[in-house]
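thought: fold this chain, then report.
action: predict
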Amino acid sequence: MNFHLDRIMPLLTPSGVVLGLLLGSWVAWMKPSVTILFAVITFIGGLGINSNDFFKVVKKPKAILVFVIGANLVMPLLTYAVASVVFKDQQEIATGLILLMSIPTAITGYIWSGIYKGNGALSLTLILVSTLLAPILTPYTVSLLANTSVRIDTAGMMASLVLMVVIPSVAGILINNLTKGKVNDHITPCLKPFSKIGLFIIIIINTAQVSDRLLANASWAYLPIALTCAFLAVIGYPISHTLGRIAGLAEEESKSITFASSLRNISAALVLAIAYFPAETALPVIFGIVFQQSTCAVMAHVLYGRKKKYVTHQHSKGVNTMQPITSVHQSVARKEKVLQFGEGNFLRAFVDWMIDILNEKTDFNGNVVLVQPLDRGLRDMINAQNGLYTTVLRGVQNKKTVEEYRTINSVSRCLNPFMADDYQEYMKLASSEDLRFIVSNTTEAGISYHSGDTLADQPPLSFPAKVCAFLYKRYQAFEGALDKGLIVIPCELIDKNGDNLKNIVKQYATEWKLEEGFTTWLDEACDFCNSLVDRIVPGYPRAEAEAICTKLGYQDNLLDSAEIFHLWVIECHKNFHEDELPFNKAGLNVVWTDDMSFYRTRKVRILNGAHTMSVLAAYQAGHETVQDCIADKALLYPFMYKGIFEEIIPSMDGSKEELEAYAADVLERFENPYNPHQLLSISLNSVSKFKTRNLPSLLGYFTKQGKLPKRLVFSLSALISFYEGTDYEGSSLKGTRASETYLIQDSPEILAAFAALYAEKGNPKAKSQRLAKAVLSNTAWWSQDLTKVEGLEKAVAANLEAIWTVGMKQAVASLV
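observation:
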């Protein structure tokens, strides 16, 4: 219902004006009920606001200043200029127009701001500021521009403000705080339609107040007045909107300023016009009452309604007109406690999912700010949904199908630090008293040193350099205070990810010649934890997205599917941080430990290793998903099974029985029919993944068994074959499978090296020998020369020749 009311507001509002004019005295007697209706509407709005929102408004007074300039300087001066030209011989009409644009902002600005997802806390603040300034600014503006004087009933205006805005909105905010946002999640969406209906009734009643006065004396002489009032009512929106954009305000702030600057307390203006001026002066005010809400409905739709077009996911086809997730769920403002580098599927279905549960089941009360590690990402899509999205957890437990849908409300916003405004917002977080944690997933290639990054870069390219610059900014902001350090928990699948990140951060600190006090602060105030994550996250369920959204009742372009199983092992150097991140209290499978080596080796080499070992060969053999591999009992499943049980597990230390039991669970998880994990999505950065996930098993097996593991060696050969390409599409190489192309995604250096290698032609035998030698001897990729491993270069070359002569399927068949 709320969705449909949003769509018809541009028609509903002028209809209310027409009804008010026609009904006149029949409804004019209901004027006292307007106060009650306003109170109810502001109470509903208050349920969606957190007290922290007001602190943010106070911390950023620029928005208030822009409003004061637009509403109290730009618009009155524009009105004076128009009135001086159009009504230069009709001083009373000109005075009415100036009075109309000098009166304080209307409470309805808060209502419209809520409808179009403005900043509710800012809207309330602007109403209060405008009303407090009115006793000074309104008389002065009228005196200066109209050469006459008025007196404002400050006490009466403030009393109305307290009854209609302050008391109900504060009550709503308190309830939202006390319930930790639960009321906003579950009750507010049901109440939102009453706000629109209430506004419709208010428009009818207010318009009815001037019906007799307007219709009884209707004349064509009023047409210039009506047209001028309509013009001023319309022009205020683009002017205010433009001022907000020029000032660099966030979109929700610009919306609040636009409505507050364009909507005026015309009832107060009518009282002043009647009390202090000739009857003609009231005419522009009367037309203002007629046009104000109608033009607001139309201009709001023009400026912001089109931006609410219901887009579909980047992979989906066609046009979906289903209501967006933001029409059903409202984001909850909380303290921004977590800075997250990475906005992709995994972190949103793992870390942000956990934070959402923490907010529900504990007193954590914190949100996550996402940061794109790269220039291209999901920033716009995430912010368009106000950080809201749905996780779809599905699997089989105890032979029963389990399906869980959860609306994630723990993400406050997503920043792209490669955009100037977002970079400033990102660096402001370094000075935040609320910020306590950094988490990341920039893939295995992310935690690496990048020569050439400097402190002056905005931002530096590499992830560790970004962290160094950010932490140094925090160190400066708090003058090295030891209680302002951050807990850093990387999720990248490399051994000792936290230790590695810290070492590279220190390397940049030394290279940038930062003071020793900063390095000491990193050691004493911050805790770089090592961590291991375990959950299979296929991500956006492309084939099922439309059906899932239909079931949910809203369009979600960020649907994130995952298995039900989850495990996060966090190895801390100082203290376990469970008091600040009470995951176990919330029933989450999180292990705090001082030694995670067993968990990490088991997961990376078996679960992730099975993926990396098989997906590139499987894709070239014609498969699309991990589930396809499991279903291929004749070829890919035995290849994967034997690779795990006959090569990976024998290369590892530890209990064989325990490792095999874990591997059996992994294969069952791979078989989950609800999570079709796309092979191409796993192929991202396969070179660094092979080094981390498979190379230790390959070398470990060779050391223990004295021979090469033929399936792991073949998987390295399949990697080289998969990376065959010379042409680019964007930043990716284009590979070819049969008659179709696919994108090869890795670091620019790796892609350039493969493109150069494949640019040189040759017969399969010569080509395979050349590729095997060049790739295996690249010490930058493997941290060693793999041609020194006895027999490896020859075996890889033989595999490549087989792949290029008999095809991938037949080549794999020889290994099962």
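thought: worth noting. Residues 120-146 form the longest helix (27 residues).
final: tokens above.
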